[in-house]
Design a protein that fits this description.
This protein has 362 residues and is of the alpha/beta class. It has twelve helices and 14 strands. The strands form three sheets. Strands 2-1-3-12-11-4-5-10-8-9 form a ten-stranded mixed sheet, sandwiched between helices. A hairpin with a 5-residue loop joins strand 11 and strand 12. Helix 1 packs across helix 10, helix 6 crosses helix 7 and helix 8 packs parallel to helix 9. Bound molecules: 1,4-dihydronicotinamide adenine dinucleotide (NAI) and magnesium ion (MG). Magnesium ion (MG) binds next to helix 9.
Length: 362
């Protein structure tokens, strides 16, 4: 059977960048004999306008049964004054929660042509290609008890609780080890076992799982504060980093800035495998709906396209096809073709469509 893809383009620049991804999917279909059953549906503000909810039950069902979901972006000023429960962003949160996407993959790749755009020295980032795996559905952002409580003395206290179970730790660590096998075979697990009980458990469980199932992968451990420092000092020492929700939130944003523009950053969120080993999966650019440039054919489609490349690599084991896309991105950048967000002296400005043209030609 063909692989099924559900495209949820969303709002703002979402449909613009996903339009370019569609062109590449069509190209794959014609030129590479890689066929997809591709369906499109609404999410976010677009779904709110059509159905009164940012994610309909029918769309959620389609997302769960598809082999992979490709999402553009959601949100925009039109819906900003709605209460939080009704906002477009809730559609995306609901998708992540209902599909139980507990592993968030954020690669930080420094393209040679964009080395100058990094905030770090060229020799520190040149050739950089690392992957941060952030636990996404547990930890401090969800743990109970939580809340703001009145104290008898008139003060208040705010509480969040860092909670992890062995199951939650092992399943995200398994994702990291499996990814490492498809990359450079090294995992660095990051926590603060020196000061946190959950960190002690994290380290023990990752170590056990490694010994049981993944001893072919090289495993190291690093305290999360040091990891932040090392990411800025010498990021190329890493291959895959696996960490919890809170530390992963910060470390992945730090890593993102090693590489330049928001318009270049892809991501994936993975859940449990089914009987055939296929994981629940959602691929999306890191950026939002960019209302400031929406509708102007200016958005950089590379983040969305690299997200599709991740889909080919990690959901469909089509590494060669993923390589083709990534090589095309490198070549186009090297040729000086740029959307506005990555424009530099001596390069040529193109539209969203123009970037799509250049990528397909390459
Ligand atoms: P944003 O990522 O949409 O935009 C931030 C800045 O980066 C803007 O100046 C924008 O023009 C630029 N930018 C972003 N993507 C670009 C691309 N592909 N090419 C060229 N320039 C690009 O973040 P912002 O402005 O904070 O949020 C705008 C809306 O998007 C809000 O409604 C927010 O809630 C939503 N949002 C949605 C996300 C999602 O769907 N995953 C993630 C982040 C924000
Ligand atoms: Mg963040």
């Amino acid at each position: 059977a063909n692989k099924s893809l559900l495209v949820l383009a969303g709002d703002g620049i979402g449909p613009e960048v996903m339009g370019q991804v569609r062109r590449v999917v069509d190209w794959m279909d014609r030129r590479r004999a890689v066929s997809f059953d591709l369906a499109e549906d609404l999410v976010g503000g677009a779904a709110l306008d059509a159905h009164g909810v940012p994610l309909s039950d029918a769309t959620l069902e389609r997302a769960k049964t598809a082999d992979a979901v490709l999402l553009g972006a959601v949100g925009g000023p039109k819906w900003d004054d709605l209460p939080f429960e009704k906002k477009p962003e809730r559609g995306l949160l609901a998708l992540r929660k209902e599909m139980e996407l507990y592993a968030n993959l954020r690669p930080a790749i420094c393209f040679e042509a964009l080395v100058e755009a990094s905030t770090l020295k060229p020799e520190v980032v040149s050739g950089l290609d690392i992957m941060i795996v952030r636990e996404l559905t547990g930890g401090t952002y969800f743990g109970e008890p939580r809340g703001i409580f009145d104290l008898p003395n008139g003060e208040r206290k705010g509480i969040n609780t860092q909670v992890y179970t062995t199951h939650e730790i092992r399943r995200v660590a398994a994702v990291a080890f499996e990814l490492a096998r498809k990359r450079n075979n090294r995992v660095c697990s990051s926590e603060k076992a020196n000061v946190m009980e959950s960190g002690v458990l994290w380290r023990e469980e990752v170590t056990k799982l490694h010994a049981e199932t993944y001893s072919d992968v090289e495993l190291s451990h690093m305290y999360a504060d040091n990891c932040g420092m090392q990411l800025v000092r010498a990021p190329k020492q890493f291959d895959v980093i696996v960490t919890d929700n809170l530390f992963g939130d910060m470390l992945s944003d730090v890593a993102a800035m090693l590489t330049g523009s928001l318009g270049m950053l892809p991501s994936a969120s993975l859940g449990d495998p089914d009987e055939t080993g296929q994981r629940q999966a959602l691929y999306e650019p890191v950026h939002g709906s960019a209302p400031d440039i929406a509708g102007e054919n200016k958005a950089n489609p590379v983040a969305a396209l690299l997200s599709f490349a991740m889909c080919l690599r990690y959901s469909f084991d089509l590494a060669e096809d993923a390589d083709l896309i990534e090589e095309a991105v490198k070549a186009v950048l090297a040729a000086g073709v740029r959307t506005g967000d990555i424009l530099a002296p001596g390069t040529r400005a193109v539209s969203t469509e123009g970037m799509g043209d250049a990528l397909i030609a390459e």
